[in-house]
Amino acid sequence: MLIPVSPSTVSINNDPLLQLYSRGSRQHFFQTSELMYLQGDGNYTWLHWVNRPSIIMPKTLKQLAGLLPAGKFIRVHRNSIVNCQYVERLERLKAGLGTIHLVNGSALPVSRRRWEAISELLDHAQTSTK
Hints:
Elements: E1 10-12, E2 15-23, E3 26-31, E4 35-41, E5 44-49, E6 55-57, H1 61-65, E7 73-77, E8 80-83, E9 87-92, E10 98-102, E11 107-110, H2 112-128
């Protein structure tokens, strides 16, 4: 399942920015290209970045998914969304389960239901970049 485009996403130099929160009159924007993956934890979501510490947001994974650019992020499990550019490989495990390995060494579960679509999407993305 790809993440839908959000009209509220701002873009600079074709790199969409994600507004996560405002404090008073200050707005905080983050480049989506630096976001490796998101992990849901109840009504909170952990955002794991390339060059900054992970942060937790008081929003559900579904709420944040609507703010991400289409085609760059994919939902791999009910509690995980990954940035396709940081996927290193997919690994098939027993009983239809799978794992997605990221370039930073993180390994996230891939649900049985999403395995086929994810493997096809990533295979297509790899062949189109060659």
